[in-house]
Every structure is written in structure tokens, then in C-alpha cells.
Design goal:
The chain is mainly α and 98 residues long. Helices cover 86% and strands 0% of the residues. It has 3 helices and no strands. Helix 2 runs antiparallel to helix 3. It is rod-shaped. The protein starts with 10 loop residues before the first helix and ends with a helix.
Length: 98
């Protein structure tokens, strides 16, 4: 026997709708948990962000170095060495994470 809830829907229809909503929410939750559990992807994303920050810093350093060379050529060597060290450090970190 189907019981009506006063809105034209049966209890069975309401239960089925609730099950569909629960399944959709569960699917979203499972996807979110899977993304958090994907450690390799998270490490790759972190390495990419770090690489971008270091490269941006290197560009900024190069621009400052260019201005310094025009005024005084001696600091240029120190800035170039610092930029090279930063790039090498990034490569070492990335290689260790792989």
C-alpha cells in the first residue's frame, strides 16, 4: 500500500529521491578523499609551485642585477652566483622528490 505525504509523492518516491541525493553526496566525498590521498599528485603540484616561485625570484633578481651592473659591475657577480645557486637548489629539491 502506497502512502501519500500530502504533496502528491509517495513515501517510496521520497526514499528513492533521498537515496539519489545521498549517493551523489557520497560520490563527491569519495572524489575529495581520493584527491587528498593522491600523494604523488600533491607533491608534483607543490614542486611546480616551488619551481614557479624560484623562477619568479630569479627573474626579479636578474632585473635587479641588471640595474646594479649599470651602476656598479662588482655586485653583478654575487647576484649571478646567488641566482645560479637558487636554480641548482630547486633542481636538487625536485630531483629528491621524484
Amino acid at each position: 500500500m502506497m502512502e501519500h505525504n500530502g504533496h502528491g509523492e509517495t513515501d517510496t518516491e521520497l526514499l528513492r529521491a533521498e537515496i539519489r541525493r545521498t549517493r551523489a553526496e557520497l560520490g563527491d566525498t569519495v572524489q575529495a578523499l581520493a584527491a587528498k590521498a593522491d600523494v604523488k599528485a600533491r607533491v608534483r603540484a607543490s614542486a611546480t609551485q616551488t619551481r614557479e616561485r624560484v623562477l619568479e625570484s630569479a627573474v626579479h633578481t636578474r632585473e635587479r642585477a641588471g640595474a646594479a651592473v649599470r651602476g656598479n659591475p662588482v655586485p653583478w657577480a654575487a647576484l649571478a652566483a646567488g641566482a645560479a645557486a637558487a636554480i641548482i637548489l630547486l633542481m636538487v629539491i625536485q630531483r629528491r622528490r621524484s
